[in-house]
TrEMBL record:
Organism ancestry: Eukaryota, Fungi, Dikarya, Ascomycota, Pezizomycotina
Pfam families per record: Tyrosinase
Gene Ontology MF annotations: metal ion binding; oxidoreductase activity
Protein name: Tyrosinase copper-binding domain-containing protein
Transmembrane segments: none
Domain Tyrosinase copper-binding span(s) in chain numbering: 333-344
Superkingdom as given in the UniProt entry: Eukaryota
Organism, as annotated: Penicillium alfredii
């Protein structure tokens, strides 16, 4: 068994150093494009579309031209895949995606019992890997590329083991900042990723402990119990919790988060968190106001001490419940894949708006806020996703979505 340090987000960052400065971006390459975010959500939504279109033009134009991967040249316009907004999926498209996720949740695990006794399904192989590596893949130099590879290999498993032939989805946070209950991802219909949890009255607020920093107060949301409808009503989260923030301020942990602990999927949809941290304006700000990857990845995850949990934390915690409020166990919520599709899309937009400087930009080390200290992440750093899928792979293969193992763009 792996020695486990089960810590809350707060305890891990308690020794975090660093003062952060925002640099003035050099926007020469963004001619005619927004260079700052509009405070109006509809206007910012339009800005996001413009930034996306510009990124897509560049990405389409540079297919096959990347030069760092060993796989150079295997991605062409012919085998290019696209990733799409969940709202652009037809009902049959949505059902096909959902069906393949449910299929992975029924296939037997590959992870050996002695490695993760709770991993019962192929879906759990991904969950076990994320629990196991949480402290090496968040607030690290590998954060963006690791999750790019992780969701790509999940997509590969859907295709090769569950006959999925559709596109990979992303969740546009800003579109749901007016009410998550109406979201096509969370409305509880048969074409959603299931909806809210059963309503539990009088829930106290959640407090995210941030070590020496003031705790961040999160409202409790509109659900709290098990999801009551939709495709994942009977799905069981098999592992965790590892560091689950509970209403009232406690954190729930288990002695071995990889042990078998089947329980319902709980949610407590919290629109207020999307409004605060992941609205259209904050998404456009993230893209336009950060000119190096350190600032970008820190703003995305929330700069410790700033009071922000970023679009990344905003999306995760807005699902609420269990495992949505547990950084380690978050892939146990099947909407994880839509959320991280959007995370990858935002990185892809940011990269393509200044490919020359940003495609291979890496900053950070191999440990959560460099605690304990570890070497800088570089293009040569090798990551792996354990028994989930794929094999060990160098960061250099993961920087472009049309190079290395990848061949996709966002539309
Ligand atoms: C880029 O390629 C995608 C996929 O082939 C296509 O759907 C899209 O229209 C293209 N967009 C631009 C701006 O070239
Ligand atoms: C967790 O990581 C360690 C070290 O890389 C590895 O030996 C172990 O098999 C991993 N466990 C899981 C569940 O992937
Ligand atoms: C949703 O699926 C359930 C279970 O398969 C079924 O009973 C129900 O009629 C479906 N509802 C709609 C609106 O399709
Ligand atoms: C928090 O945990 C403590 C100790 O286990 C317990 O006494 C208390 O009731 C818990 N508080 C809440 C709000 O669950
Ligand atoms: C949108 O998000 C930003 C955080 O990035 C926040 O400062 C702002 O208040 C939010 N907008 C609204 C209208 O809530
Ligand atoms: C690691 O990265 C930091 C920040 O970019 C840099 O100051 C430092 O010199 C690097 N360390 C090594 C050993 O390259
Ligand atoms: Cu993660």
């Amino acid at each position: 068994m792996v020695a486990f340090k089960v810590l809350t987000l707060g305890l891990i960052v308690s020794q975090a150093y660093a003062t952060f400065t925002l640099q003035k971006p050099s926007n020469a390459h963004l001619q005619g494009l927004p260079t700052s975010a509009s405070p109006s959500w509809p206007a910012a939504s339009h800005q996001l579309d413009l930034l996306h279109e510009a990124a897509l033009r560049v990405a389409n134009h540079t297919i096959g031209q990347d030069s760092v991967s060993h796989n150079r040249g295997t991605c062409t316009a012919k085998n290019l895949r696209v990733r799409r907004d969940w709202r652009a999926f037809s009902a049959p498209d949505k059902k096909a995606f959902i069906k393949s996720v449910r299929c992975l949740q029924q296939l037997p695990a590959r992870t050996p019992k002695h490695v993760a006794p709770g991993a019962r399904t192929r879906y759990d192989d991904f969950l076990a890997t994320h629990i196991n590596q949480t402290q090496q893949i968040h607030y690290t130099g590998t954060f963006l590329a690791w999750h790019r590879y992780f969701i790509f290999e999940f997509e590969q498993a859907l295709r090769s083991e569950c006959h999925y032939t559709g596109d990979y989805p992303y969740w546009v946070w800003g579109a749901d900042a007016g009410g998550m209950e109406k979201s096509e991802v969370f409305d509880g219909s048969n074409t959603s990723m299931s909806g809210n949890g059963a309503y539990i009255p009088n829930q106290k607020h959640v407090k995210l402990l941030l070590g020496k920093y003031a705790p961040i107060d999160l409202p409790p949301g509109t659900g709290g119990g098990c999801v009551t409808s939709g495709p994942f009503k009977d799905y069981k989260v098999n592992m965790g919790p590892a560091a689950l923030s509970l209403p009232g301020g406690n954190v729930s942990t288990s002695k071995n988060p990889l042990a078998y602990n089947p329980r319902c999927l709980k949610r407590s949809l919290t629109t207020e968190l999307l409004q605060r941290y992941a609205n259209y304006t904050s998404t456009v700000r993230l893209i336009t106001e950060n000119d190096n990857v350190w600032n970008f990845e820190m703003a995305m995850q929330g700069i410790p001490g700033s009071g922000s949990i970023g679009v990344h934390g905003g999306g995760h915690y807005s699902m609420g419940g269990d495992p949505g409020r547990d950084v380690y166990t978050s892939p146990g919520d099947p909407a994880f894949w839509h959320h991280h599709g959007m995370i990858d899309r935002v990185w892809w937009i940011w990269q393509n708006l200044d490919r020359k400087h940003r495609l291979h930009d890496i900053s950070g080390t191999g440990t959560f806020m460099n605690n304990p200290p570890s070497p800088n992440t570089t293009l040569d750093t090798v990551i792996d996703i354990g028994h989930a899928n794929g094999g060990p792979i160098a960061m250099r293969e993961l920087m472009s979505t049309t190079d290395g193992p990848f061949c996709y763009v966002y539309i």
